[in-house]
Amino acid sequence: MWSPKDFINGTRSLTNAEKGVYIELINRMYLMDGPIEDDDRELAGCCKVHLRVYREIKSSLVEKGKLRQNGSKITANRVEDELNIARSVREDYRTRAQRAGKASGAARKNKALAEQQAELKRTYLSPSPSPSPSQDKKNGAANGGIQDLDAVLYQRGKAVLGANAGGQITKLKTEYGVGGALEMIETAAKKENPREYVAGALKPKPKLPKLRGPV
After folding, report:
1. For a tag site, which of 137, 175, 193, 214 has the least CB within 10 Å?
2. How many angstroms separate the CA atoms of 71 and 65, rounded?
């Protein structure tokens, strides 16, 4: 981060001409987000000084540790330090944003699942009158209404597909989830042969043959 106080303290040993060139060069480094091309003629023009004067000033700045030549590039240690800090901060913000996005996505997914479960319960778990104590004792708590979606799935599935369709219902649940399986069963109920319809939906899709290249 640019600090006027740090700049003043750090450039006390520089002449006004050196300060002018130094300011021009480091601003260009900040603009380019790193080292710049060490082109004396071009940079002398940018600094509005004669080429010979620019080279003398640059040499002095290098000797005083303000500039550093690296191959075809020229940089400044302070600029590199500041840019590294800025990159670290940006990366930290990016990581936090990604985490927040994932958390938000998970929250939306959980909300959608909860809404789906609620809709399934409204559709399939219609409330029934509470049994009398004698009925409850005789028939068990199940008379109070099914409260489990899995139980609803298997109850409805067997009613549509047959009493021995437990394995087929389990495959539907594995393939489509409880909600999807219930929807599939309701669709099958409208078919002439529900069990055959479900078997067709569960049938593995044939694999396409691999294309052979020219012989």
Report:
1. 214
2. 17
Take residue 127 and report the two structure tokens written for it.
């409330």
Helix, strand, or coil (residue 63): helix
Q: What is the mean pLDDT of residues 45-59?
A: 95
Which CATH number do you get for residue 11? 1.10.10.10
Q: Are residues 143 and 72 in the same domain?
A: no
Residues 77 and 148 in one domain: no
Residue ranges making up the domain that contains 24: 4-83
User: Per the structure, how many domains does the chain have?
Assistant: 2
Strand ranges of the sheet holding 68-70, from the earlier edge strand across to the other edge = 36-37, 73-75, 68-70
The pTM score is 0.44
Q: Is the dihedral of CA 148, 149, 154, 155 positive or negative?
A: positive
Query: In sequence order, what DSSP letters do the residues of 150-181 get, joined into one string?
Result: HHHHHHHHHHHH-TT-HHHHHHHHHHHHHHHH
Confidence of residue 127 (pLDDT cuts 50, 70, 90): low
